Amino acid sequence: MGTLTALSAFSEGKLVDKIKSAALLTPVADLTYMTTPIGRAAASAFSGEMLGALGVAEFDPKGAVGTNFLESVCAMPGVNCYDLMASFTGPNCCLNDSTVDMYLKYELQPTSVRTLVHFSQTFRRGVITKYDHGSSAANMAAYGQSSPPEYHMSNIPHHLPLLLSYGGGDMLSDVKDVQLLLNDLSNHDADKLVAQLVKEYAHLDFVMGVNAKQVVYDGLIAFFDKHNSCTKGGEREINHMSNQSNRHPCYIPFPPFQPQVLSHPMSRQSKEYHNTSSMRTSGELAGAHGGRQPLQSLGAADDGVCTAVVSPQGYECREYEVKTQDGFILTMHRIPQGRGGGSAGKRQSVLLQHGVLADGLTWLLNPLQQSLAFVLADNGFDVWITHGRGTRWSRRHESLNTSDTAYWAWSWDELANYDLPATVGFVIQQTGQKLHYVGHSTGTLTALSAFSEGKLVDKIKSAALLTPVAYLTYMTTTIGRAAASAFAGEMLGALGVAEFDPKGAVGTKFLEFVCAMPGVKCFDLMASLTGPNCCLNDSTVDMYLKYELQPTSVRTLVHFSQTFRRGVITKYDHGSSAAHMAAYGQSSPPEYHMSNIPHHLPLLLSYGGGDMLSDVKDVQLLLNDLSNHDADKLVAQLVKEYAHLDFVMGVNAKQVVYDGLIAFFDKHNSCTKGGEREINHMSNQSNRHPCYIPFPPFQPQVLSHPMSRQSKEYHNTSSMRTSLAGAHGRWQLLQSLEAADDGVCTAVVSPQGYECQEYEVKTQDGYILTMHRIPQGRGGGRAGKRQPVLLQHGVLMDGLTWLLNPPQQSLAFVLADNGFDVWITHGRGTRWSRRHESLDTSDPAYWAWSWDELASFDLPATVGFVVRQTGQKLHYVGHSMGTLTALSAFSEGKLVDKIKSAALLTPVADLTYMTTPIGRAAASAFSGEMLGALGVAEFDPKGAVGTNFLESVCAMPGVNCYDLMASFTGPNCCLNDSTVDMYLKYELQPTSVRTLVHFSQTFRRGVITKYDHGSSAANMAAYGQSSPPEYHMSNIPHHLPLLLSYGGGDMLSDVKDVQLLLNDLSNHDADKLVAQLVKEYAHLDFVMGVNAKQVVYDGLIAFFDKHNSCTKGGEREINHMSNQSNRHPCYIPFPPFQPQVLSHPMSRQSKEYHNTSSMRTSLAGAHGRWQLLQSLEAADDGVCTAVVSPQGYECQEYEVKTQDGYILTMHRIPQGRGGGRAGKRQPVLLQHGVLMDGLTWLLNPPQQSLAFVLADNGFDVWITHGRGTRWSRRHESLDTSDPAYWAWSWDELASFDLPATVGFVVRQTGQKLHYVGHPWEL
């Protein structure tokens, strides 16, 4: 923002006479090409309308609003929370770990909500203007014109020396946006403009990069030298510390700038902005802003639609109550005639049915000439508006209250079966006529569902379906896909949530996250679900956000998710055959067959090319079902520009859709000469023939359904039902796990008819672990002859993982029934292994471990215990982290003498190619620095930290919360609904924050090392070396039999990462290494897949057979239940492993990691400065005392008052650490960006921080702290708790703060100054 404010001021000719030259680092002006998904979301998320409704004027990133936002950011795809701000700005290449620590702890400063809104306006509109106050009147008062004036960067005086330094990796200040700025500067004096592109740099590298001095600052100083005066000696002295003292002051080490012409995608003026402007030409906005004031009375207790919205517009309005067959009391509103009156008795009735998360107000939000309800009334119709159950005016029931869970026990089935018949029937009783029907979104789905069962057809003259929703297979919006999957009854049921209120606690958290999602435009919240609406009115959006977003049932959202996941339209799935039998008289939910809709029913389908919810291809599937419809009774209209909300709120919807809709109703009214309805005198359609329809005839097309019109998943689920009775019975057994004394044996194993034993094992470092043993199969046998197998689970799980499926599918039971002695571990910190010889789980010390300790202590303890108990070597099975701990131990030669063979399911070692966006975020989000600041040592996914994270995960694009862990691991193909229920209820176990940090280090660095303790000293204490030792997988003994089974769909243990591991094993004995790729499987399919026995476990058992001893009879007996009893023990049904060479993108050693190592040369100083910075937390310490003076620099503090009364703090470093004649030094002003303060320039060690570098190079350095930040929070009359204090955007920073600080420096020094700005951190 320090660049944007300067450019804005310069473009108006301000300050130019006081500036010698300006260096703009990562210059922000245009934001059109901004590519970072977080930046795009952040630029749109904080509209004054949304936060204003919450009364928020200050945005504090460490406060409640900011914290919720940043928590969401940490869980977003591609976000590396190792550097929180990089989530906004692109992958910074060259940051120092220690500096990042300090940045996260001491930076992230408040700003005004208006500033963020101003950025969002710039992003959305594609032009750089002053702040838009939201109405012509307010803009006129502020600027003397009805729209905000534009900043024209081409007006910047051509003689002003400018240096623009920008990064190729900067996703906020994108290269193409900088090029647009350079285009505006194309007439600048050639010798006064320098542009430097640093391809490797992103946004923060310019102020915090460890090599920024060499890459940027040396050239910046040379630029200042040149434009100082370029005398022989220059005007400033060079500090003896500088290695640049012999440089000629006019030399600039940048190539000359070559201007290019880059066409602006919106011709340098935003289509949206000018559409908005054109909307205002009709004067309708005056009506919208003024005439819509009655809406404000909706907040009054007794005011409703008639009083607040309809009657004040001059229309007659009536209110009715209708009771459904199942006892819900619905409100309906009627507009019986147009504003010009007329004989209502002759009017045709029309029923308007809204969609989900809306109510009947939807039809009334636009000005009169644009709102369908008013348009229909003025065109001679008797208009009836419904309000669905659970929404604002329909929240009563004959016996239930909305606080009762039973009130919300409905989905859209009930809307089709009860609400629609009740409202349609009531209108017919009142009018004595059939009616026309208009539905939007869910209002189309309920109608189509009813029609497909032959209901209401005798009561409907015709139906117009706007954005028809039926199939959801091709839905393309990432938010829609997430929303369709996120609200499984299992998840919200566990929270006791039956009502989904988008303005309530659950909904608010969801919507806060939506606003931060990539590609989400919170200017129109619902567009996050529905696609880019082209033609909405700002004022209508304001009202929509304020008055709409109505509650619905969680079941309705679950029902949508079922439709999305399965690809067929069925009634609500109650989750069990018994429940379905009770509800439907059949074991699965019946399907709605749209082809059964009576062919003579007149239907108009109007849908949008930009609608990402009701996708064009999904509508085509519906049209395929209607292919036998009477040709004259079916009209389909595609509006290519429209998305979902344009059909009900579009400013031009009357011309585009409603006129044709009215003509359609005319035709199917009766098509007599005069028609059956009178046309209101206000309509410009009065001479239209009632049978004319301005739509082209419908041409049916055949579109093959990707799942042959029936979902693979759904039918797999059906096939799973053969074992569901047992699975649901096991659910009852598992419920006893919640009882205080029940454990795995009592609750899970013994009730299945297996013997079960429980043991305790103490690790060398004092943790007491529980193990469970299934010594034989359900059919018994001589346990003494059985081979032991140890099963080790992954992270965020425990040993229950191996027992969740029915016995025929769970690996523990399958192994027991195949003659093995099965031992199940439960890792430290999980449910049954939470004891220690001296520590409690509430002690942070209890959690001071990562997966290093699991490999070094837990695995040796459990393996050793089994060997001692059985007197035999064992076979090992690990899943996920259970493979990583084993591989780590094996690579150090540990346990190899105790292991016969090891089967590694979804082997995790390298994480370089991990593709899941959630996995990438999860690997980065929980740095010790961040959670350490919160005092968090335990990560409990069901606790506060974990819940916030998982709530965000459930709303993420591409996340299917039907299987929470799939959000991390890829789309699991073959899970059983019932098993998933149990998994969500009983799994998700705690782990240490260190373990997650350790994963993040592995992901970020591209090498597998021990835990990095964060400093050379700590690593030296732990390992005897300054950096953590590497695990070399190539050191695993070549004779150890290994089976690696991995999935083609696994986005965590990616195929290419497994290939890197196999490269390390390329010298392994050929007969001791088997690799199996299961293309369809993802991460959890290997432990919970319904067909895993056939796909993986049978081969795993054969592998164990082979490496047992391969005698004729083998060493183990086969249980009579196994169908594999005749298999030769040495047969392995896997193809031989063919090693491949895959080049590692970082040559098996991370560039970042080694950069980090090189950074360590200055880490001692950096860590020392950490200690200094801690004094910033003391009440009276500031920048001079805590940061500058302890480094040996002189420091002075000043206060500057702006023209509008803000009191700003400035700090001055008048000379370098080596002293010198300060009077002869040239002043330089350093201006930070948004969400930062002047500390930005001081975080790195002195040799790397620009403020110190400039001081040591002979400059008089002045550091600003913008209004509202830590040291500049005073005003001559206002307090920061007053909203008026925050009534500013970056306009005021350019108009008041910059002139005040620049002017102050000029007065103090008597000289013009050089300027350095860095923009913003959003």
Average predicted local confidence, pLDDT: 78
What sort of overall outline do the alpha carbons produce when their principal axes are compared? flat
Indicate the low-confidence ranges by residue numbers: 45-49, 72-83, 230-294, 486-490, 516-520, 671-733, 925-929, 955-959, 1110-1172
Extended strand count:
33
The biggest sheet amounts to:
9 strands, mixed
Strand percent estimate: 5-15%
Backbone CA Rg? 34 Å
First-residue to last-residue Cα separation: 10 Å
Q: Which percent bin holds the helix content?
A: 25-40%
The structure class reads: alpha/beta
Provide a descriptive summary of the structure in words:
With 1322 residues, the chain is α/β, with parallel strands linked by helices. The chain is built from 48 helices and 33 strands. Strands 1, 4, 5, 28, 29, 30, 31, 32 and 33 form a nine-stranded mixed sheet that branches. Strands 6, 7, 8, 9, 10, 11, 12, 15 and 16 form a nine-stranded mixed sheet that branches. Strand 19, helix 31 and strand 20 form a beta-alpha-beta unit. Helix 29 runs parallel beside helix 38. It is flat and about 95 Å long. The relative contact order is 0.10.
